Amino acid sequence: MKLFSHILQIIIFSGLLVACRKSELEKPAPQPYRLPVPVNFPAPQYETYNPLTKEGIELGRQLFYDVRLSGNNKISCASCHHQNLAFSDGISLTNIGVSGTTLSRHSPTLINMAWANNGLFWDGGSTNLESQAFGPLTEHNEMGQNLFELMDELKAVPGYITAFKEAFDEDISSANVVKALAQFQRTMVSANSRYDKYVRKENGASLNKQELKGMVLVKQKCQGCHSTDLFTDNLYHNNGIDNDFSNPGIDDLNFGRYRVSYNMKDMGAYKTPTLRNIMLTAPYMHDGRFKTIEEVLNHYTENIKYSESLSPVLIQNGKIGITINNEEKQQIIAFLHTLTDEDFISRKSLGKP
């Protein structure tokens, strides 16, 4: 009788073990997410080692809006990247970081990040979204977070333990934090403006005469840097806002792309921002020095400062600057308004959970 009972226990235990293994094998894998690519956009190129999944994207959204990512638990990624401002902050140089120190550079917009494949930050100091995230997370003048403490904070939240398992089938780690953030940011696709609907001939969309003239002018005058329907070439240009680089600033930030490349042709060069949603993302330039789009246009027509590294696209027919009269400036501004994407700034999947 004892032998039968012992055998029965072994059978039951074996059955439970098999059931557990079967349960593990049947654990659902993360669901792949296919990024919708607008027909007027080129194909995106992003990190294949971090494929988009629904679980990873949603985890990234949770983290993007979570103040736990900062050392004082008061600042999230969204603190400097507001959806209603096309993920900019409306401030020339912010000082809301943990230290309260005013930063040296303007918070960049987060628009069509899946196509940002030629470096990030204003000088391209980071190669991809994954590595980029470590900068603001740990910089003491920004989010000022100790990554070991962050892991402890996230592990104290049962929902995060589950979410990381579902997204990566791994425990919480700093590597997976930045991978999730990158996945979410790559879904920040802005391609549903009035301009987009017009070029895609959707539902009889149209632009008025002023806007159409502005569109032609932008293609003629601005496409040297703001090219394709991304309205950026993802390259770095010295656009003549400075010509004295004798003061490098903290960490050589005033050197622009030269800080990274050590190529004199990159002295004072900064990454071309997209023109998309530009009427929402003032102030402008890497240091937010221009408060209005009118100031930007006036710079290109009247105030460019020459230096050896000035972008060649700003020297036309032996003359420095871009020739645009006042009427044409108003036409360009009218067109730039058509690049505002109301869907992008209100899309629930990009908003706070």
Automatic annotation (TrEMBL):
One of its GO terms (molecular function) is peroxidase activity. Residues 209-340 form the Cytochrome c domain. Its main location: periplasm. PROSITE patterns: CYTC (PS51007), PROKAR_LIPOPROTEIN (PS51257). Keywords: Heme, Iron, Metal-binding, Oxidoreductase, Periplasm, Peroxidase, Signal. Pfam families: CCP_MauG. It comes from the Bacteria. SUPFAM superfamilies: Cytochrome c (SSF46626). It is found in: Periplasm. InterPro entries: Cyt_c-like_dom, Cyt_c-like_dom_sf, Cytochrome_c_Peroxidase/MauG, Di-haem_cyt_c_peroxidsae, MauG/Cytc_peroxidase. This is Cytochrome-c peroxidase. It comes from Polluticaenibacter yanchengensis. The lineage of its organism: Bacteria, Pseudomonadati, Bacteroidota, Chitinophagia, Chitinophagales.
